[in-house]
Amino acid sequence: MRENGILRIIARFLIPLIMLFALYVQFHGDYSPGGGFQAGVLFAAAWILFVLIYGLESGLAVIPERAMFVLSAAGALLYGFIGLLGVLLGGRFLDFDPLLENPKAAQQAGIILVELGVGITVACVVMLIFTMFVRRRGELGQAWHPEEHD
Amino acid sequence: MVVAIAVVQVRDLFSAAMLFAIYSLLSAALFTVLDAGDVALTEAAVGAGISTILILAVLTLAPRHEKRHPGINWPAISVVVVTGACLLWAVSDLPAFGQPGNPVHTHVAPYYIEHAYKDLGVPNMVAAVLASYRSIDTFGEVIVIFTAGLGVFSLLSVRPTARKSNKPEDSE
């Protein structure tokens, strides 16, 4: 699909917008609908659009598969770490109050960090699943099923 | 509703995937009408977007048309009818929609509504409940997603050449 000019130009215009919207949904989740889960999916959707237009190799050049694995685990670990940080500072598991002096600020910081962990994990897992399906398609080769879906 | 029936009826899996995306998008619109912005956003992004892409990714690996099984599968029909009857019977027991005295509005919801902004200073109550009050649940969800990724990886990381020998429809 790399040859199709219309698709390429529209994608070039849309991908940054989708990513920007994902970041907005991620960090504005406290004020408007959204949060880590939706933001992660949107971010992964932008990357998948990039892969559909430019191919898997270019997509993996942006973020290698290994990095996806590490980041998807890191997101979940970030969530757990924030929870344990509360325990270390004298609270209960996933109790954000001890993180900062002001309990309101502490809660907001905790929510933002935890949602960041959710977002990273969701984005990386979705990208990873898509990568593995595309790769399996490549391994089976053209002889398997000549129909093209996009 | 019409779209849902169409999804079941259509034999072309590609059209079914598209209809399913339309169904998700319509549900998202319905959630927006019901003022559930968070759910609508999730449904639009996950249901209409990512699921469709993943279904299409699977379709590139599978034949395009569903195999037609002749005859009627009586055990399956009986299970569906009995379950449906039970659900309909249970619906008649549900409290009326939107009444303030319903159990869902009298348990912890008033506490959240009164304390979420006062304690947390977070205007979006859904985010407050998900990330702060129900933080451990959300942690569990993240672990589930991570496990799903691992599951797909462990299924698809096996080389396909090892399976080709015992797959007769391979030559299709």
Supply the key terms.
heterodimer; A: 150 residues; mainly alpha; 74% helix; 0% strand; B: 172 residues; 9 helices; disordered C terminus
Model description:
The complex is a heterodimer of chains A (150) and B (172). By secondary structure, chain A is mostly helical. Helices cover 74% and strands 0% of the residues of chain A. Chain A has helices spanning 5-27, 36-54, 56-62, 65-88, 103-140. In chain A, helix 2 packs across helix 3 (56-62). The longest helix of chain A has 38 residues, at 103-140. Mean pLDDT of chain A is 80; it is low at 143-150. With 172 residues, chain B is an all-alpha fold. Chain B has helices spanning 2-9, 13-33, 37-59, 74-91, 103-106, 109-120, 125-133, 135-156, 161-164. In chain B, helix 1 (2-9) packs antiparallel against helix 2 (13-33). Chain B is extended and about 60 Å long.
Calculate Rg of chain A over CA atoms.
19 Å
Reported for the largest beta sheet of chain A, the result is: none
Average pLDDT of chain A works out at 80
Shape of chain A: elongated
Q: From the alpha-carbon coordinates, what is the Rg of chain B to the nearest angstrom?
A: 22 Å
Indicate the percent of residues in helices of chain B.
Answer: over 70%
Number of strands of chain A: 0
Please state roughly what percent of the residues of chain B sit in beta strands, choosing from under 5%, 5-15%, 15-25%, 25-35%, 35-45% or over 45%: under 5%
Q: Give the termini separation of chain B.
A: 35 Å
Largest interface: A-B, 57 and 52 residues
Number of separate helices of chain A: 5
Summarize the structure.
Chain A is an all-alpha fold and 150 residues long. Chain A is 74% helix and 0% strand.
Topology:
The complex is a heterodimer of chains A (150) and B (172).
Chain A: H1 5-27, H2 36-54, H3 56-62, H4 65-88, H5 103-140
Chain B: H1 2-9, H2 13-33, H3 37-59, H4 74-91, H5 103-106, H6 109-120, H7 125-133, H8 135-156, H9 161-164
